[in-house]
């Protein structure tokens, strides 16, 4: 029995070593407008969006420069939706690498953009903490009382560096006061 336990532990350690993690994004503290209420409930659901690295962002920038420069042969020849999608689409290697990681982690996913550059997952906080080696917490906006679930850092397998651009929402704290100012005025809020 002890021998089996040792083999199991050794196997888990070797798997962990085979997939070293890389801290992908982090911030030292939440914005001052937010209070950390502690760990988010492990069974709460998070809708996360994974942004894959675009295949040819430099090409898109160059093309946009050309079509907006007077005197250019392609000046004012606007790009179609399909042409833009071709520039921002991830490589097939990026797509398969990220999807394989999610599948191996037991996470269901769906592509949520026409170009395939965004993948959506719905996971529990516990799954997100495990998948991203994170500590998701509940934060409360000091003025509005609005609560959100975020983390101050997350990690991904080092092999996904260059394939996965970022995961949202993780370390981003949107200022809900700014959003309120752009909403039309009404007497009733839902």
TrEMBL record:
One of its GO terms (molecular function) is tripeptidyl-peptidase activity. It comes from the Eukaryota. Residues 31-173 form the Peptidase S53 activation domain. It holds the Pfam family Pro-kuma_activ. The keyword Acyltransferase does not apply. Keywords: Signal. GO terms for biological process: proteolysis. InterPro entries: S53_propep (IPR015366), Tripeptidyl-peptidase_I (IPR050819). Residues 1-18 form the signal peptide. This is Peptidase S53 activation domain-containing protein. It comes from Hericium alpestre. The lineage of its organism: Eukaryota, Fungi, Dikarya, Basidiomycota, Agaricomycotina.
